[in-house]
Specification:
This protein is mainly alpha-helical. The protein is built from seven helices and no strands. The chain is elongated, with a radius of gyration of 22 Å.
């Protein structure tokens, strides 16, 4: 007597292997679909807060003439380990990189181009932080110095360099968000989210 083949849903092993993929696509639909605007705003808040810390640190050094060891931004004053922990800096660089990757599918046309520019810059920024983290873990520092040193840091001091990196990443990101909510007719047609709903009736 022949038996009816079992479906994938009836085979627990195959169903469990497919589940992570399904969850991934569902999460991407949320991030880049009806929750795109909310998620982008939360992500932008994190990016600006970190960038502001770098700006405050630069002000403390160049405007207030604080010693470098005391110029720790805002959160670094009560929590000095935030400034000295390479794990924390690397963690932020990784979160920023993952955010740029995860939100990319939600952008179209001109905004996608600018978002991609920000992503490419952050790939390098992340690599620089990875180099710093590896040095801390291994105890071997580039150039034989006393502190971890990234590649471009051999030419530009760390405070100025990472303020520059964060600015380079933020500017094209801001342009991308501006264009994203002001799409042209072609871009609006292929958008998966409703981020441009508020500007639909405005002239350009």
């Amino acid at each position: 007597m022949s038996q009816t083949p079992t479906s994938a849903a009836e085979r627990p092993g195959e169903a469990s292997r497919a589940a992570p993929s399904d969850r991934y696509h569902q999460a991407m639909d949320v991030l880049n679909g009806h929750r795109h605007q909310l998620c982008l705003r939360l992500y932008l808040f994190i990016v600006i807060a970190h960038w502001a810390e770098h700006i405050v640190q630069a002000v403390q050094i160049y405007a207030l003439d604080w010693p470098l060891a005391e110029a720790r931004g805002v959160l670094g004053i009560p929590f000095p380990w935030l400034v000295t922990s390479e794990w924390m800096h690397y963690g932020y660089a990784l979160i920023m990189l993952l955010g740029l990757l995860l939100f990319l599918p939600g952008f179209t046309g001109r905004s996608r181009t600018w978002w991609t520019v920000s992503l490419v810059i952050q790939v390098w920024h992340h690599f620089e932080h990875l180099i710093l983290l590896v040095q801390v873990s291994s105890g071997a520092y580039i150039g034989g110095g006393d502190v971890p040193t990234s590649l471009i840091q051999l030419l530009i001091p760390r405070v100025e360099l990472h303020l520059f990196y964060n600015t380079l990443v933020f500017v094209p990101m801001a342009v991308a968000m501006y264009l994203h909510v002001r799409p042209n007719a072609v871009e609006r047609e292929v958008m998966r989210c409703d981020c441009a709903r508020e500007t639909a009736g405005r002239g350009r």
